Amino acid sequence: MANLLTIIRALLSIPTAVAVLQGYYTVALVLTLLCALSDFLDGWIARFSGDRTNLGKLLDPFADKVFIMVVLVALVDADRVSSLPVILLLIRELGVSLLRAFVASQGLLMEASHLGKIKTFLEFTSLAFILYGLPVGIYLLWISVIFAYVSAYEYIRAYVNLSTLTGRASGRD
Question: Is 98 left (phi over 0), alpha (psi -120 to 50) or beta?
């Protein structure tokens, strides 16, 4: 059930972006709030039902990235957001995704960090404010960029510590 909610969240990026591009910001706002709620619910369901899977641990942050980045690109196209924070977030997201994929190729799993979850919360919140037309959304977006890079550093540090402990960074198995 939790993974289904996660997949639906990623898929909802398309109608949300279309709503933004068509100027239906209230529809986009409602879809964004539903996606933010689904992000909370899928984690809650997985934890309390004991249904936490490795697939879910990988899929959840991926769905968040897809939704947030697709909607942000639509907001850039609609001239509601500057491209610079979106580019910075995209670079960070691709870098962290590459690191996670590399770690996974070594048979390990790198879960979302606490700072990464705060970043995602800030991103969803900034999207909601931007879609509602409140300027504070842009400031929150920039704060989420800061959290994005601090959490990326945390992921890199965790990988270095993990690879030092397991000897995997140097190819020793």
Answer: alpha
Which tens digit of pLDDT belongs to each residue from 60-91? 888 999 999 999 999 999 999 999 999 999 99
Backbone angles phi, psi at 46, to 5 degrees: -60, -45
Q: Token match 């004991």: residue? A: 50
**DSSP code at position 109:** -
First and final C-alpha spacing in the chain? 36
Q: What confidence tens digit (pLDDT) does each residue in 123-139 have?
A: 999 999 999 999 999 99
Number of alpha helices (DSSP H) and beta strands (DSSP E) in the chain = 7, 0
**CATH homologous superfamily of 2-166:** CDP-alcohol phosphotransferase transmembrane (TM) domain (1.20.120.1760)
In angstroms, the CA 112 to CA 105 distance is 17
Distance CA 43, CA 57 (A): 9
